[in-house]
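S1.2 Input.
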Amino acid sequence: MNRVDREFFLYGGISVLAGTLLALQWVWGAFVLSLLFLSLFLRKSPRIFFCCFLIFLSYLNGLYQQNSRFSILSPDQTNFLITFTNIPSIDGNRFSSPVDTGGESVALTYYLSSLSEKELFSSISPGTSCTVSGELMAPNGSGNPNLFDYKKYLYQQKIYWTLKVDSFSTCVPANSWSDKLVQVRSEGLKLIASGFPPEAVGITQALLFGETGEIAEETMEAYRALGVVHLLAISGLHVGLISACVFFLLLRAGLRKERAGWVVIVFLLGYMVLTGAAPSVVRASSMLIVILLGQKAFLGIKTLDSLNIIFSVMVFYDPFLLFHAGFQLSFFVSFSLVLSSNRILSSSSTLLQAFKVTYVSQVASLPFILHHFFKFSMIGFVTNLLYVPLYSLVILPAAFILYAVTIMGIHLPFAMDLYQSLLGWTDRFSLFLASFPFSTLILGRPHAIVTGGYFGIIWVGFMLMEKGRQIKSAVILVLFISLHLMWNTFRPYGEISFIDVGQGDSILIDLPFNQGTYLIDTGGNLMFPQEEWEERKKTFSTGKDIVVPYLKSKGIGSIDKLILTHGDLDHVGGAVDVLEGMKVKEVWISPGSAQKEVMEEVMLAAKGSEVREAKMGDEWQAGESSFSILSPDDAVYEGNDDSLVIYAHIGGMKWLFTGDLEESGERKMIRRYNVEADVLKVGHHGSASSTSVEFLETVDPKVAIISAGKDNRFGHPHPDVVARLEKGGVIIYNTADDGAVTYRFWRGSGTFSAHRP
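S1.3 Output.
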């Protein structure tokens, strides 16, 4: 094929991307469309009509697929005949799986009642059909900006309901060939779980079957910090190595080259199913299949052509794949590597080639990594040079060999011990490297304009690399990242965010020009005693799963003051995760509250911070903002009425943060101070024991913010409190309904906004 034919597939892929994005997300669609037409104009390409046709076609396809996503199920339906379409997951007492209800998929959840039932349900395999009764429920969306949105995640998979099952009745196993393939995957995972040392199970399952559920969260976080988490997913490198091995073994077995190629194609089709059909596997396997078929048909299809062909086919099949992080990373990094291949291969040194591959991969992934994970691995430029050869040449082959001998029933305890030790050393080394203070750079989720800037810088950088100006390319990138970091640190506006942590409080005060970052409480979830078999490997924590990611999405990696108003779990339950996940300079607590049992772990985690007991009379100034502690006035901790109460002037408004202060504490405080505030954080989540008439008349707020959980078991906020606020003409925000509530201010004025419309 000549250059014009190369452009045929390249422009075709970009046209499909532009048309689909215009249908689903017009801002990025317009951005890609502009770049496409600019390129066509500059290169004087004759493909303009072809591109317009593909843009129009993909636009219609995107609209059609978007409009065809709706539910046909009735929320009143309670009995279902379901079929398991994937391997069910059992974590503690929670059994879950996507299932088909006869034309529509739902996300099934069932809570196991006993250990024997757990063992029984572990035998359910993909394809099994069961009759169940339960309730359809609308999935919850995220209450906070930038964080994982379960409702959106399910929608992108054409799932619109969660099915909470009360009881199972008859179940019938499956017999179709497609189910058999998924069952082979299921059996393979079980074989690893039973035949490998426990410490090696997670990594081995990830390398061979693309299943990362058994890897410890601590290990996953360390690999993310080192920028090598892609090694735990099946990538193009994996597929290439495995296919080459299969091809070589077939030749050694005496098969002719042409027949061996057909066998590899069939193997790749099966391998996609065996590994869970993740986008990276489908991309890499399909590309190889297209290249092999092209060779057999003498079409001379190259790597870039196959990449564009597979991209177009996958996006046409499911346009919502464009929002999948794995899909984005897999295609854009591959695209960048293919375009840079001439420059990479021109290096005479293998080490230099490896460094260029690492550099291109790291830089190309940067905008996607920041958008989804808010931080970038600085150490990844070095660690990939160590980890990629280690995994590709040692750990991955070892995993395959040990798995193969395990299937054959051969036990190699020494080899298995050596393999386990190697993974253990790698794990500990990863945790050690990840503990370095500057291993990652927290930049937050960039604005669309900044993201566009990153793409522009990457494009310019790769152009400079083609001309041999690698250093200039790196300097431009470092300058842009520095500007991004400086904007995050010294941005001229401030924000006060009432984070949606469910039933609890967590308030972020981020002042402009880096004048101060304060976090009042961390939320927390109640934990109930459970038997050992009921305990889950990955438990939810408001600190780890909401507060820390929310702060990082704002580009915040350091807190000046963590203020824990009092020692109740719904206010301090996430504090340990915050202290472990962020740099915290000072921790302020209510006098005597450290003696509470729930505060023991918090105090241990706060050893690296300055801890002080704050009380009435403490105050500080930060730029134009001022803060005063109004309560408590003694050193004896007695509960809610000893909450730290903070009065502040921020962003042209007077604020009163009351913790869980109750009526008696309110009465005591207003007798001492004539407190007037524009904004009131309603005490004790709107409990009837707080926010008295007398207190409201004294404070006279214009805006009240209630931090409460949706459908909480306490009935917060109490209708009487809401009625009192409404009677006073107060504007009410409730995180249970509104999600996170944010006040963004510039100098002396600002506006409120709620995450949920």
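S1.4 Remarks. Residues 380-407 form the longest helix (28 residues).
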